[in-house]
Design a protein that fits this description.
The complex is a heterodimer of chains A (680) and B (175). With 680 residues, chain A is mostly beta strands. Helix content of chain A is 13%, strand content 40%. In chain A, helix 1 packs antiparallel against helix 2. The longest helix of chain A has 31 residues. In chain B, 53% of the residues lie in helices and 5% in strands. Chain B is built from 5 helices and 2 strands. Classes of the chains: A mainly beta (680), B mainly alpha (175). At the A-B interface, strand 20, strand 23 and strand 35 of A face strand 1 and strand 2 of B. Strand 23 of chain A pairs parallel with strand 2 of chain B, so a sheet runs across the interface.
C-alpha cells in the first residue's frame, strides 16, 4: 500500500537520482511567473537539503513549466560538483541548463507538431507607409504638397544613407570587389547583422520575405523568419489545448488583418480548446512582434459555449478586419469582434455554413438568419446522409479563400472555349468504408456537394481501394491518391469539371440558379511511391501554371506540373491534341529527380505542406512541416517576371543613348549639308 | 558675238545675217527680214484636233483612275495565294502592304478626286472609293483566313471577368 511521504506543493517536476550511495530528490519550481526556475535538491530519505543541487536558473517563461528533469552532477575543475539539468518543458522544448544559470542549448521540439501555418507579409517601411498615408487623407492641396515634399526628402536621405552603407561593404568582402548586379537586385537586405534592427523586418522589393506564424500542438506559437528559419518570437499559451477531429489535432489560425492597412495593426487569432474547462479559448496577437493584440485580453478570450465550427469571413469591416463567425452547438452564431455583428447581419442572407457529424455521417447545411430577438441563428437548409453503416466520412475539403483563378476556360483546338465550372462553394467529401464479405475489399467514395444548396454535383466510388487518401481541391479540379488493393500500387486520380462551350451565367455564380450539371473529365495514373502530404502552389493572380507538390515517404518533395495530371491527356496523340499542347497519356507518372524541390535534403514524416503567394507572380512559397521543416520558393513556370541576373543594363543603356545622340547629330549635319548645296 | 568681228566690216562683205546693209551704212529702221520661201507659213499649228478630243481623253483618264484599284485586286489575289496561310514574316508583310496601299489611297482621296473630271465624275469617284474599300476588304479576308481576326470566343477569353460570388458557404468537420 502506498502512503504519502511528503507533500510538495507547487513543484512542477522532480527527479530521483543517485549520487554514490545517496538517493537524492531534485525538484524544480518556477517562481511566480518570472524567468527564474528554482531547483532544489534534498536527500530522499531525510529531506536535508543538498546545496550543490540547489540553484536558481534562468528558464524563460515561454517554456512554461518544466515537466521532466534529468540532472547529472559533474566534477568541476575546482573539485566541487556542478549540476547540468536537462529539462523537458511544457512546450515540448529541451533545454540544457548548467549550474551557472545559463542555458547551453535549447531545442524547440514543438516545431515537430505544427498544426496550423500562415505566412504573413511584413509591414512596409515607414517611408512607404508615409507615402501611402498621403493618399488616404483629404487635406488641401498645399498640405498634400508639403507632405509629399517631406516624404521624398526623407526618401532621398535614406537612399543616400543606403548608398553609403553599400559602398562600405566591399571592404568586408574577400577578393570580390564592387557590388555586383546580383547583389543589387537580390531582395535580401544586407544589414541582418543582429537580425532584428528596423530595416530587417520591413517588406522587401518582391514581398518574398515573410513571417511564418506557426501554431503547434503544445500550445506554443512561433513567428519564424522565412529567410533563415530562426524564430523571431515565441509565445506559449499554457491554457491552449487542441480540438480533436477524427485522428488529428486541430488548432485554428486566422489572419484577421494583414499588414497592408497602415496604421491599423495586423491581427492573428488562434482558436483552441481550454485545457481545463474544455470550452473554446481565443488568443489574438500581432504576427510580427508576437505581442498580444491591444483589443483582446492577454489571457485569452474564453467562450462559454461549445463550438461546432469557426469560420473567418472574406468581407472586411471598416477597420479592414475580417470577423470570425463561430457556430455553437445550439446553432447560434457569434461574431468576433462583437462590433462586427452589424456587418454580419448585412451579409447574413448570403452566408451559409455546413457542419459534418462524423458519428452519424450526416452533413447539415445552415443558412444564417436573424431570429425575432435579432440574434444570428442557423436555419437548417439541407442534409446529406452518407450512410454511416457502410462508410465513414474522413475528409471534407473546400477551396482556399485566397485562390484566384485567372482564366475562365480552356482554349480548344477549334478556337472555342471550354468554360470551367467554378463553383466557389463546392465541397469535396471523402468517405471510406469496407465491404465486410470479402477481404481486401475496402472502398472509398468522393462526393462533390454544393455547400449552399446541398446539391450533389458529382459522385464516384473506387472499389478495392484503400486509404490513407490525400485529397486536394482547387480551382475546378480535384486530385486524390489511393492504394489500389488489386494491383497493389499507389494511384493518383484527377477530376476536372467543365461547364461546356457556353457559360450559363457570365456575370455571377449563384447556387440557387446553378448552371447545368458539369462535364466531369477523369483520369487515373500510377504514382511511383507513397505520399504523406499533397498540396498545390498558389500565386496572387493565378496566372502561373500550377505545380502539385507530393511529400514522398522517401524524404523528397516532388513537384509535378499540372500538365501531366490533366484528364484531357489523349491516349493517341492527334493533330488537335498536339495543337492544344497535351501530353500523350502514359499510365505511369514520371518521377524526375530534378523535380524534387528539396534536392539532397531529406525531410521525413511530413504531415502537411503549406503554400502561400509571394509578391512575384511567378513564385510560390512552400513550407513542408511534420517531423522536419523545409521551406523553399517554387517557380512552376520559371521566373518569367524578373530580369535575369546578368542583364546588361550598362550595355543596353549606353547603346540606346549613343543611338539617340548620333541620330540627332546626323540630322543636324544633314540639314546643314542640304543648305550648303542649295547655296552652291 | 565678239566686238572685233562687228568692227571689221569689209566693204564688199556680204552679210545676210546682220541688221546692217551690205555697203556698211547703218539703217535708220529695221529692215524686214528675209522673205519667206513660197508656201511656207510661220504660224505654229495649234492642236485643234486635240481640242476636239479633249473631253474624251479626260473621260478616259478619269475612268483609268477610277478603275485602278479594281485592277489591282486580281494581282493581290495572286500574291495572297503565293504568300500562304502560315504566320511568318513574308505573309505578314504582304498583308501589311495590301492593307496600307488602299488606306493611303483613301486618305489621299481628295487629291485624286480633283484629278477626276468629266461628265461621269460622281460615278467615277464612287467607283474609285469602292475599289479601295474592296482592297481593304480583301486584306481583311486574308487576315481572317490566317486566323488573325478575333472572331472566336477564345480570342476574348482574356477579357472574361471571373464570376462574382453571391453566396459564401464555409464549414468543415465539426470541432
Amino acid at each position: 500500500m502506498a502512503r504519502v511521504v511528503k507533500h510538495l506543493p507547487k513543484v512542477a517536476a522532480l527527479q530521483v537520482m543517485g549520487m554514490g550511495e545517496q538517493w537524492l530528490l531534485l525538484t524544480a519550481r518556477r517562481s511566480d511567473n518570472t524567468d527564474v526556475l528554482n531547483v532544489f535538491g534534498s536527500d530522499l530519505l531525510t529531506g536535508s537539503p543538498v546545496h550543490e543541487l540547489s540553484h536558481s536558473l534562468k528558464y524563460p517563461i515561454h517554456h512554461g513549466n518544466p515537466q521532466r528533469l534529468y540532472g547529472t552532477l559533474s566534477k568541476l575543475r575546482d573539485g566541487s560538483s556542478g549540476l547540468s539539468l536537462l529539462t523537458c518543458g511544457e512546450d515540448h522544448s529541451l533545454v540544457l541548463l548548467t549550474h551557472s544559470g545559463k542555458a547551453l542549448w535549447t531545442r524547440e521540439e514543438a516545431l515537430a507538431s505544427i498544426l496550423s501555418v500562415e505566412m504573413v507579409d511584413l509591414p512596409v517601411s515607414q517611408i512607404m507607409a508615409k507615402m501611402e498615408d498621403e493618399f488616404g487623407t483629404n487635406d488641401n492641396i498645399l498640405q498634400m504638397f508639403l507632405k509629399r515634399f517631406s516624404t521624398q526628402l526623407s526618401q532621398l536621405w535614406t537612399f543616400a544613407l543606403q548608398l553609403k552603407h553599400r559602398l562600405r561593404i566591399p571592404r568586408q568582402h574577400h577578393a570580390g570587389g564592387s557590388i555586383s548586379e546580383t547583389e543589387r537586385m537580390s531582395e535580401e537586405d544586407s544589414d541582418d547583422d543582429e537580425g532584428l534592427d528596423e530595416t530587417y523586418l520591413t517588406r522587401d522589393e518582391f514581398n518574398l520575405h515573410k513571417i511564418i506564424v506557426v501554431v503547434t500542438g503544445p500550445g506554443k506559437v512561433f513567428g519564424l523568419d522565412s529567410n533563415t528559419g530562426v524564430s523571431i518570437w515565441k509565445t506559449f499559451y499554457p491554457s491552449l489545448g487542441t480540438f480533436h477531429r477524427i485522428d488529428r489535432d486541430v488548432l485554428l489560425l486566422f489572419v484577421q488583418r494583414t499588414t497592408a492597412h497602415f496604421p491599423h495593426q495586423p491581427v492573428c487569432t488562434v482558436l483552441g480548446k481550454d485545457k481545463v474547462s474544455g470550452l473554446p479559448i481565443m488568443f489574438s496577437f500581432h504576427p510580427i512582434t508576437g505581442l498580444p493584440s491591444e483589443s483582446a485580453p492577454s489571457e485569452g478570450r474564453r467562450l462559454n459555449y461549445k463550438i461546432v465550427n469557426a469560420v473567418m469571413l472574406t468581407q472586411m469591416d471598416e477597420h479592414f478586419l475580417h470577423p470570425i463567425v463561430v457556430m455553437d452547438s445550439e446553432k447560434k452564431f457569434h461574431v468576433y469582434p462583437q462590433s462586427d455583428v452589424d456587418l454580419v447581419n448585412q451579409f447574413s442572407a448570403s452566408l451559409f455554413m455546413f457542419t459534418t457529424d462524423i458519428e452519424t455521417g450526416i452533413i447539415t447545411g445552415y443558412g444564417v438568419e436573424l431570429d425575432k430577438k435579432q440574434q444570428l441563428i442557423g436555419n437548417p437548409l439541407w442534409t446529406v446522409d452518407t450512410n454511416r453503416n457502410l462508410q465513414a466520412i474522413t475528409k471534407v475539403v473546400t477551396k482556399r479563400a485566397l485562390e484566384h483563378v485567372h482564366s475562365q476556360g480552356i482554349v480548344l483546338e477549334d478556337r472555342s472555349v471550354q468554360y470551367k465550372y467554378l463553383n466557389p462553394n463546392l465541397i469535396a467529401v471523402l468517405t471510406e468504408g469496407e465491404e465486410a464479405q470479402q477481404k481486401a475489399s475496402a472502398f472509398f467514395s468522393v462526393y462533390l456537394i454544393d455547400g449552399v444548396t446541398g446539391n450533389l454535383v458529382f459522385h464516384c466510388t473506387h472499389k478495392k481501394s484503400k486509404g490513407p487518401i490525400q485529397l486536394m481541391h482547387s480551382e475546378n479540379w480535384i486530385v486524390y491518391n489511393y492504394w489500389n488493393q488489386k494491383q497493389r500500387r499507389m494511384e493518383l486520380a484527377v477530376l476536372e469539371l467543365y461547364e461546356g462551350t457556353r457559360q450559363s451565367n457570365a456575370t455571377a455564380f449563384t447556387s440557387f440558379h446553378p448552371p447545368p450539371p458539369p462535364i466531369v473529365m477523369r483520369q487515373a495514373y500510377i504514382f511511383p511511391g507513397h505520399i504523406s502530404a499533397l498540396a498545390t502552389t498558389i500565386t496572387e493572380k493565378g496566372i502561373t501554371s500550377k505545380q502539385l507538390l507530393f511529400a514522398l515517404e522517401t524524404g523528397g518533395v516532388l513537384g509535378l506540373p499540372k500538365l501531366l495530371i490533366d484528364p484531357r491527356r489523349p491516349e493517341v496523340l492527334s493533330q488537335e491534341a498536339r495543337e492544344e499542347g497535351l501530353v500523350p497519356y502514359l499510365p505511369e507518372l514520371p518521377r524526375p529527380a530534378d523535380h524534387i524541390i528539396n534536392y539532397h535534403q531529406s525531410v521525413f514524416n511530413i504531415h502537411g505542406i503549406h503554400t502561400a503567394p509571394a509578391g512575384l507572380e511567378s513564385t510560390s512559397l512552400v513550407l513542408c512541416y511534420g517531423l522536419d521543416l523545409f521551406y523553399t520558393r517554387v517557380m512552376p513556370s520559371k521566373m518569367f517576371d524578373v530580369l535575369k541576373e546578368d542583364f546588361d543594363y550598362f550595355f543596353i543603356s549606353s547603346v540606346l543613348i549613343g543611338m539617340i545622340v548620333v541620330s540627332v547629330i546626323t540630322q543636324r549635319l544633314a540639314v546643314r549639308k542640304a543648305l550648303n548645296r542649295a547655296w552652291k | 558675238m565678239s566686238i572685233k568681228t562687228a568692227q571689221k566690216r569689209h566693204k564688199w562683205a556680204l552679210d545676210y545675217t546682220s541688221k546692217h546693209r551690205p555697203d556698211g551704212s547703218k539703217q535708220l529702221f529695221q529692215s524686214e527680214p528675209l522673205p519667206e520661201p513660197l508656201g511656207f507659213s510661220i504660224t505654229t499649228f495649234s492642236d485643234s484636233g486635240a481640242r476636239d478630243n479633249n473631253p474624251d481623253l479626260i473621260e478616259k483618264k478619269s475612268w483609268d483612275i477610277a478603275l485602278g484599284p479594281l485592277k489591282q485586286i486580281p494581282m493581290n489575289l495572286f500574291i495572297m495565294w503565293m504568300a500562304g496561310n502560315s504566320i511568318s514574316i513574308f505573309p505578314i508583310m504582304m498583308v501589311g502592304m495590301m492593307f496600307i496601299r488602299p488606306i493611303q489611297a483613301l486618305l489621299a482621296i481628295q487629291q485624286t478626286f480633283k484629278m477626276i473630271e468629266g461628265a461621269n465624275k460622281t460615278i467615277q469617284r464612287i467607283v474609285y472609293a469602292l475599289g479601295n474599300l474592296a482592297g481593304v476588304g480583301l486584306a481583311v479576308y486574308k487576315c481572317q483566313v490566317m486566323g488573325l481576326l478575333p472572331t472566336h470566343a477564345s480570342d476574348w477569353l482574356a477579357f472574361v471577368e471571373p464570376q462574382k460570388q453571391l453566396e459564401w458557404a464555409n464549414g468543415g468537420i465539426g470541432l
